[in-house]
Amino acid sequence: MNRVYFSHFRTVIACATLTFGCQMWRSSPRLWHDQFPILECMYIQSRAKVLLPVTFQAPSLRHLRLWMPSLPIGSPLLTTTTARLVALELIDTSASAYFPPSYILTRLSLMAQLERLSIIVDSSIPNRDVESQLHQTPDTITLPNLRRFVFQGTATYLEGLVACISAPSLIILRVNLFNEPRRPLPVPRLCHFIQSSKNLTTRAVQVTFGDHAVSLHAVPWKWDTPLMLQIKCNRLDWQVASAVQFFGTLSPVLSFVEHIAFSYDEQHQQSEWLNNVNRNQWRELVRPFSNVKTIHMKPGLINKILPSLPSDDGEPLLPNIEVVGYSGGSKFRDAITTFINERKASGHPVSLRRVYRGKYDTPGNW
Questions:
Q1: From CA 302, how far away is CA 318, in angstroms rounded?
Q2: pTM summary value
């Protein structure tokens, strides 16, 4: 049964966790009239429309989490109570509870103290309004204290947000995009957003092809790793095609990368999915990493990526490579040796380094 939890009376409530069903919420709003002077944390989970009274006030509110929110635009929870927020989470926002990016941005402009922001929206959120917003020249809002930004949703929605946000203190960015087969994945505004947040630049990354997504993250991977970008899709050819568009737009950011590892989930090692991508796609995948000095590949990718590196005119695609790392046995050593000999003949010699299992995610081991 849904319940409302109060730790004490409203004048001494510091944290409230609420879960609502339709019947419960019809009778409970009267409990939220007037001011809650020391309320600092509020977590609400509800698929029903949450109608807080306009008299509700929480001037000390600092942490707000809305799970499956269905708040009307103009709710006091997003207007009069957010000035002191340091953490805001909007989780599992569906099309029925759609907040346009323009509305979110208006609310964020009032949150100068915000440090952590998480927005997770459903893939069914309409893109029409967002696309029309992208053709305008919006005002930029600055969030001077924002240090962590997590987003899951469509690239279009993300572009609508970051086009108007400046976060000079940002140190952690997590982006998880839904694959949209009929829509391209260029993200020029995300690229500018990352560039303007100087702390997100990274010189070592890992690209991983998984069961359900392709991801790029800074290494070594830790809870505070500055950058993680992911695109949700299953088939490898979709993953590579999406990554080609995504990475291509981010080339001004990825050109700072000096060390890169290409990996895949272990369960794919014996499968045929690696054969579904042609040489040209692999070449376009690595092209944005133009200043890479060290490249490492797990065994199944060696015969795919290395032959793509020479360009059609004979010049190497990544001219600054100095070290090629590999893991596994000697099965692919001949392919690597051929590549090394070709580079030497072209005047761009490289050295070979074996990287032992489990060590490829740490640049010092490359």
A1: 15
A2: 0.84
Determine the Cα–Cα distance for residues 261 and 221; give it in Å rounded to an integer.
13
- The answer for 346, left when phi > 0, alpha when psi is -120 to 50, beta otherwise, is alpha
Angle between helices 155-162 and 101-108 (to 10 degrees): 30
What is the CB neighbour count within 10 angstroms for residue 53? 13
Cβ contacts of 171 within 8 Å, gap of 6 or more:
147, 148, 199, 200, 224, 226
* pLDDT string in tens for the chain (366-residue length): 343 444 444 555 567 665 555 444 555 555 666 677 888 888 877 666 666 666 677 788 898 888 765 565 556 566 666 788 999 998 876 655 567 788 888 889 989 999 999 999 876 665 665 666 655 656 889 999 999 999 999 898 899 899 999 999 999 999 999 876 556 678 899 999 999 988 898 899 999 998 889 999 998 877 788 999 999 988 888 889 899 999 999 999 999 999 999 998 765 554 556 667 888 899 999 999 999 999 998 888 888 888 888 765 666 788 899 998 877 666 777 777 888 888 888 888 888 887 765 555 555 555
Residue of 209, 216, 154, 156 whose CA lies nearest to 179: 154
Q: Which residues lie across from 165 on neighbouring strands?
A: 141
Contacts of 105 (CB under 8 A, 6+ apart): 138, 141, 161, 164, 165
Strand locations in 57-115 (E): 63-67, 87-93
Dihedral pair phi/psi, residue 276, rounded to 5°? -90, 0
DSSP string covering 197-213: SGGG--SEEEEEE-SSE
Name residues whose C-beta falls within 8 Å of residue 208's C-beta, 6 or more positions apart in sequence.
214, 215, 216, 217, 262, 263, 264, 265
Is-contact 195 252, C-beta < 8 A?
A: yes
